[in-house]
Specification:
The structure is a homodimer. Chain A has four helices and five strands. Chain A has helices at about 5-15, 25-35, 40-50, 90-105, and strands at about 55-60, 65-70, 75-80, 85-90, 105-120. In chain A, the strands form two sheets. The first copy, chain A, has a three-stranded mixed sheet. The interface of A and B includes residues 93 and 113 of A. Chain A binds a DNA duplex (25 and 25 nucleotides) through helix 1 and helix 3.
DNA sequence: CTAGATGCAAAGAGTTTGCACGAGT
DNA sequence: ACTCGTGCAAACTCTTTGCATCTAG
């Protein structure tokens, strides 16, 4: 894997991002650092990084893929339907339950896609 | 909502389908019954039905939307990664756990998207 | 020096839409 | 009749790709 200027820039942008940007957003952030980057390169790089396990592709609907670095492990997402804000969570009991359900159906679970879409509870309800 | 021949045909095809067809597959099945249906009409009808709560749109990846009738209630999906076969399951404990996690994070869950992607266990492992 | 990366624009895939014609109530 | 639906093709959005050029190792 050749370390080009573009790849370095995109990798840097990714390491600074703790949200879940789509390609266009990555392109925006990358060209802000170095304008000599094309959107095609962002697509190609993102795919390369995904193949090398550096990035994980997520699909939260809306037709565009979004990306997150793999370096903070396995987790699920809770999306605020009003703000679009994406939060992460993890739960061992949940993981165990899912694996059990899969096994009961005769399957070994390879990937789980779990997203909760919710609305913030009012203070008085919490 | 005007009951046209095309809509009647598409509705009929849907009622016969217990899988999760995409638009192209619906188009194929519908034109087999009545060839005077265009793909644009299938797209429009599917959207209409979704807005009226008759259909639910699902996205199992692969870039195309897939549809299922809403008349068999709330459930989750297990997708066989080798065959692409989609199975449905339900689990009360799981639902309760998810609601609890949401509440703990200060959210009321509106929608859940949960798909397990797995590989059939070999007989000896089951 | 040379394999591989980039930019650009064109091509793809899935989906939507403008417009004139056609059909349901 | 009059409104709404349909077919067709063009338009749109996101993503990929062919090709000539450039660059890292």
């Amino acid at each position: 894997m050749k370390l080009t200027g573009q790849r370095r820039t995109i990798a840097h942008v990714l390491s600074e991002s703790d949200d879940h940007p789509d390609v266009e957003e990555l392109y925006r952030r990358a060209t802000a650092v170095d304008p000599r980057i094309s959107i095609a390169t962002v697509y190609r790089t993102v795919r390369l990084f995904e193949e090398n396990g550096i990035l994980r592709r997520r699909d939260f609907g809306g037709g565009r893929a979004r990306y997150e670095t793999t370096d903070h492990g396995d987790h699920f997402h809770l999306i605020d339907v009003d703000t679009g804000n994406v939060m992460e969570f993890d739960d061992e009991e949940l993981k165990a339950l899912l694996a059990g359900i899969g096994a009961r159906m005769g399957y070994e679970i390879a990937t789980t896609r779990l997203e909760l879409y919710g609305r913030r509870l009012k203070k008085k309800d919490r």
